[in-house]
Design goal:
The complex is a heterotrimer of chains A (95), B (315) and C (97).
Chain A: H1 2-25, H2 29-33, H3 35-54, H4 59-81
Chain B: H1 2-24, H2 28-48, H3 52-76, H4 81-86, H5 91-113, H6 123-128, H7 130-133, H8 138-146, H9 148-166, H10 188-211, H11 219-235, H12 247-270, H13 282-306
Chain C: H1 2-29, H2 33-55, H3 62-93
């Protein structure tokens, strides 16, 4: 069973690696903003599998923190990649 | 086993590749993204090294807080990026810098690979005396019990950093608030994310602090997650950064080191030595100190990230 | 019982990995940023959900199992909202991004 868990963790890491190659080289910043999301889902998946396989304790807390921080990083990327915007163009009200 | 080794080698290679990409990336934003990804992958490496507390800290500080700091800096430098690109160092100095970095990296790798199998270590004694501290997590014991003085000084360094950041403000802004004002109509999606994430994050942060006495976790990690939650609420512009001259803010900033120092002095009076804890009563004292450390860290890190005050102080 | 639980884990985790792979294929092959975003946030999240489902029988305690579900719910929420945020950013910067 541990071999299966490790193998699946390896496959997920591989998908993360391949996805990173695509995302980080993608033209434009919009692609790169997705990097935190990719690492979030893929990283947490392989983290949980590796922890289940090697018996490390307390890893669920790390995964919780990871999830929060990946969301936080994504929001920060979007917030800065698209610079602070004025109210939407279709919401002008002559102020 | 072969599979585990292959996984480790693959992970190491991935980390290496992301690091290399980050160095060669064009544009500050791309490099920052690479750095954050690198930090998150590195915390996977720490899990593989069975250093779960370090993994949590790496994810929280290494890629979370530092990543935000870098993103903010990259955003602020966006206008000047073109000008900065013109001033490239000459080819020769770049080669010299690269060789120096490679030499240092090789030296570090050689030292680590040539470690004796059983180097000198205090780990057995540290584990042996763990029950006296009442803690179950040896990392927390090292931080707050065996090496409490170092940890207190680290918190003092954080406060000094905040003072340094604030001193960058123009004279007329001293005492004002950093960051942007609260928006009247915050962007709805980001506001939604912040409103859902923040309560959960506060719960998780406090949980990780509390559980750090016996399981992986601790004050620093919990405080960093709390800081991230405050920062995301500020990013969504649901709230604004407080005035830097607000009394509660300044009190919160120094509360951690002050309580720590008081505990150390109290130890000299009640327990026979500077930073000694009364036997049998150590764990409550430790948790008390850690609670204030969490407060300080949760307030300091966002203050470092939002930067110097940029608005005039209000009456 | 143990065998059934193991079989369940294998099936669920295997399905999860399949969705991760599908998401990555989408990431590689879709023509523009918005559809790549879709592949990433929907497929990968489902993969994580199935992996979590497969790991539930192996959890050490009910609290640990609850945490696993909470992790997945959090990632799901963050993924959905991030997709909206990034989509909005892509649309605002023009489809050339």
């Amino acid at each position: 069973m541990t071999e299966f868990l490790l193998a699946t963790a390896g496959v997920i890491l591989l998908t993360v690696a391949v996805g990173l190659v695509r995302i980080l080289s993608g033209p434009g910043d919009a692609d790169r903003m997705m990097a935190a999301q990719l690492i979030g889902t893929g990283g947490i998946g392989s983290l949980l599998l590796i922890a289940a396989a090697t018996g490390a304790r307390g890893v669920e807390d790390v995964a919780l923190g990871f999830a929060l921080l990946a969301a936080f990083a994504s929001a920060a990327f979007v917030n800065s990649g698209a610079p602070a915007e004025e109210p939407d163009a279709d919401a002008t009200d002559g102020r | 086993m072969i599979l585990l080794q292959a996984l480790d080698i693959g992970l190491a290679f991935l980390v290496f590749a992301v690091a290399a990409w980050t160095i060669f990336a064009r544009g500050a934003f791309a490099a920052t993204v690479g750095y954050v990804v690198y930090g998150l992958l590195l915390s996977l490496v720490w899990i593989r090294l069975f250093a779960v507390d370090v993994a949590l800290t790496e994810a929280a500080i290494g890629s979370g807080v530092t990543g935000i700091l870098l993103i903010g800096a990259a955003a602020r430098l966006r206008g000047a990026e073109a000008a900065a690109d013109e001033e490239q160092p000459s080819g020769f100095s770049r080669l010299a810098i690269a060789s120096l970095c490679v030499l240092v990296a090789l030296a570090l790798a050689a030292v680590v690979l040539l470690f004796a199998d059983q180097g000198p270590s205090l780990a057995p004694q540290a584990m042996q005396h763990l029950p006296e501290t009442g803690l179950g997590n040896p990392v927390t014991a090292v931080l707050i019990a065996y090496r409490a003085f170092d940890t207190m000084l680290e918190k003092v360094v954080l406060v000094l950093a905040v003072v340094g950041v604030w001193s960058l403000a123009a004279d007329k802004y001293w005492g004002g608030a950093p960051g942007e004002a609260r928006a009247e109509r915050p962007e709805p999606t980001l506001a939604f994310l912040a409103q859902i994430l923040a309560p959960l994050g506060i719960l998780v942060g406090v949980h990780i602090f509390w559980v750090g006495a016996d399981e992986p976790g601790g004050a620093f990690q919990g405080g960093a997650i709390l800081a991230a939650m405050w920062m995301i609420v500020m990013m969504a512009r649901l709230t604004e950064a407080p005035q830097t001259r607000a009394r509660w803010l300044r009190l919160a900033l120094v509360a951690g080191p002050l309580v720590f120092l008081a505990a150390g002095v109290g130890g000299a009076i009640f327990a026979g030595g500077f930073f000694a804890y009364p036997p049998g009563f150590a764990k409550p004292v430790i948790l008390f100190i850690e609670a204030f450390m969490v407060l300080t860290i949760a307030v300091t890190l966002p203050m470092l990230v939002t930067g110097p005050p940029r608005r005039e102080p209000r009456r | 019982m143990n065998l059934a639980a193991d079989l369940f884990s294998v099936v669920a985790i295997g399905a999860g990995v399949f969705f991760y792979l599908a998401g990555t294929v989408g990431l590689l092959r879709f023509p523009d940023a918005l559809s790549r975003l879709h592949a990433l946030t929907k497929a990968d999240n489902l993969g994580l959900g199935l992996v979590v489902l497969g790991l539930l029988p192996r959890a050490e305690s009910p609290l640990a199992a609850l945490k696993l579900v909470a992790i997945w719910a959090l990632v799901q929420l963050a993924g959905a909202t991030t997709a909206q945020l990034i989509g909005r950013a892509v649309r605002r910067k023009g489809s050339a991004a």
